[in-house]
Amino acid sequence: MDTAKATLRALVTEYRHADDNVQALNANVMESRATRKQLEAEIAAILAAPEFSEINKLNISDDGSNIRIQRPGTYSKPWALSKSDLRGVLDAYFASTNAPSADACFEFVCDDRKQKLVATEFALTRTLPKSKE
After folding, report:
1. Total structural domains in the chain?
2. If we measure between CA atoms, which residue out of 66, 46, 64, 65 comes closest to residue 56?
3. What are the residues whose beta carbons fall under 8 Å from the beta carbon of 47, sequence distance 6 or more?
4. 74 domain-assigned
5. Based on the domain organization, do 62 and 111 belong to the same domain?
6. Do both 62 and 101 map to the same domain?
7. Does residue 60 sit within a domain?
8. I need a surface site. Which of 9, 37, 78, 89 has the fewest CB within 10 A?
9. Is the pTM of this model over 0.70?
């Protein structure tokens, strides 16, 4: 039993170190994403000018990479549907088709999703104390 406790203690310590590393990396990623978003806005403002209307790709010469430009109205963004948005869409559909209430269809879709999203493994989440700033 003492061996199991020692092993558990060592694993928890190792888990804490790994979690610290992940949190530090995530903070860096968030900063980089914010910077990237700001730069994208500045680039888009320039590309909106008429003289750049035909440009669909920017070549980055020093590393050989490219930036693909998708202009407003020319592509579809990926989407997700919240439960409240789904309810609204179903209500609108059933109202426009004179069908009965959307409740049964909404419940079916939600129940189907709920069953398919049931976890089958352990999940560990580390909670840190709030900083005193």
Report:
1. 2
2. 66
3. 55, 69
4. no
5. no
6. no
7. yes
8. 78
9. no
